[in-house]
Amino acid sequence: MHHQHSTINTAPSTQHHRRTTIDTISGLNEGCSWRWSTFYGLNQVSSPSSEFITLTAMNLENILLEIDPPLALITINRPEKHNAISLATLAELHHAVDTAAADESVRVIGITGAGGRAFASGSDLNEVANRDLRKAMEPIVQGLAAKLESLPIPTIAMIDGICMGGGLEIALGCDLRVCTPLSRFATPEGKLGIIPGGGATARLPRLVGKGWAMEMMLMGQSVDAERAQQIGLVTRIVEPEALMGHVRGMANHLAGFAPFVPHFMKAMVHQGMEGSLASALAMEKFAQGALVQTEDKTEGINAFLEKRKPTFKGR
Hints:
With 315 residues, this protein is α/β, with parallel strands linked by helices. Helix content is 39%, strand content 16%. It has a 6-stranded mixed β-sheet, with helices on both faces. A 4-stranded mixed β-sheet has the order 7-9-11-12. A 3-stranded mixed β-sheet has the order 1-2-3, with no helix packed on it.
């Protein structure tokens, strides 16, 4: 596939990998793969038949995408708005997730917010104020959370600061959530005369239990990082200056597993929770039965017995 670009400027980087700023690239939805750390900038194309700006090129004005294998880092870049999720931002998040997922060198996707004050403060209220029933019934944030949940690779929400409303619902779509000590979480929609619309009423009780989900949604009050960890909303608390390195370490660890492992693990948990215990256990057996026939299983066991690092091939 041929990429059309207006300018490509390569600047020195303080990190030990190549970083390239690409102003315009076409054709990202065709499954391209980049093996270096790249910031993507794309031409914006509007689609009148869709809520989102779609097709093969977009102008990433609200997010940053950096691919440094095995991690793809997506940064919501609206610090002046506490990284509020506008529809344009949501469209770019969809596109960035699709781009990262299409790169075979990416084994983990991390999502964070710029500025050190917020992961995402929620949906952009200027847009919500004019939202009618037709628009409210569209997937919007629910669609992004579902996409993250269904990806074959793990996703990590890297939370530093405010994580509320639609921002929390994006984090709930991730497989893992890591936060900094001063982070705060809330579902404050009730104070606005509405209820959550991005999945919190379904995903939050599945994650933290009915009691704390009702506490957070009915009361609308924020919980701090320590409480969030106590109830299982986050699993790790890391100092802000260590957050990026910590998540990169997690990504490197996850990349050491056979590629089928996180894919199957996610499917078993997400789909297994939707049915009966008996059906989930049966599905688990069939899934393990498939994996024991792979080359990677043989390699994993041999490497363990031979006390060496395995070389997995995704076969």
